[in-house]
Every structure is written in structure tokens, then in C-alpha cells.
Amino acid sequence: MGSLRIARYRVEHVDTDAAGVVHFTRYASWFESAVLENLDGLGLGLGVAPLAERDLVPAVTELTMKYVRSARFMDRIEVRVRVAHVGGASFRFAGEVRHGDEPLIAGAESRTGGDDAPGPFIEDRTLLAAGTLAWCLVNGTGGAAARLPGPFREKLRDHMEESAR
């Protein structure tokens, strides 16, 4: 099994509502970005062989997300994804969005005033959300579903956890 990259983000003002809490749609966006970054890192992203030579593009077929805790403005978060399933015509990633482990300002106190209380400078990896993202490949011009090319499928399978095979 190969390892996948952890995507790290900082919650920006645009990610939040008027109360400074991350809007629920941002978790899905970060999750999708982490998957796309990892596909790129594996040489399986948009515009690269074996997809480009076959005019294939990935398309999301299903998203599930369970929200556990809220992130807030200026929190650091990390998104860890893993290949959960690879079939003949689809693949699925599972993942988690967690607080990151690096405070923005060294020694800063949390929003609630205590050094170890939750807040914008949290230093643990508290689970915020978890979910799955299922994909298929479609023809870039006609939009018809397509089988996963062998090299694409095998590279994804090489990165599946043993327990998921």
C-alpha cells in the first residue's frame, strides 16, 4: 500500500458564516480538493495519461458526510483520504477532516481563554467530519460513463489499504 498526501488548509473568512463557523459545504469542498490533489500526485489527475489519451474525466457520483464538530475562522485543518474501493467502472475515497496540529501563532491561547480549550489555535486532531466520495469516469465530450482504464485501476488499487481489498 502506498501512502497518500495529507491536505492542509487554514479556515479563511470566506469559509465561514457571520458567526465565524465554517459553513457545512466547505467540508465537502476540502474533501474533494484532497482527493483531486492525491489523484494528481499519483499521476491520475485531470489532463494526464491514462485519462487524457482516452478523453476521460472523473465525475462525482455520490458524497456522504457526517459532521461531528465545527471548525472556526483561522483554525488549521487537515484532510486525510484513502482509497476505499476500486471497481471496474467506479472508485471511492473515504476520509476525515480534522483540526490540524499546528497553531497559527506559537503560544497563542484559544478563543475561550485556556491553553488547552478548543478554539482557533487548537493543537489536537479533533475529528470535524468524515465521509466518502464516489467517482466514475465519463467521456469528456459526450459525458457517457466509461470503465476505468487498467493502469488507472491498478494504480488506485496499489494505494488501497489491505483491509479494504
Automatic annotation (TrEMBL):
Keywords: Hydrolase. Residues 20-105 form the Thioesterase domain. PROSITE patterns: 4HBCOA_THIOESTERASE. It comes from the Bacteria. InterPro entries: 4-hydroxybenzoyl-CoA_TE (IPR050563), HB-CoA_thioesterase_AS (IPR008272), HotDog_dom_sf (IPR029069), Thioestr_dom (IPR006683). PANTHER family: 4-HYDROXYBENZOYL-COA THIOESTERASE FAMILY MEMBER, NOVEL THIOESTERASE SUPERFAMILY DOMAIN AND SAPOSIN A-TYPE DOMAIN CONTAINING PROTEIN (0610012H03RIK). Belongs to the 4-hydroxybenzoyl-CoA thioesterase family. This is Thioesterase domain-containing protein. The lineage of its organism: Bacteria, Bacillati, Actinomycetota, Actinomycetes, Streptosporangiales.
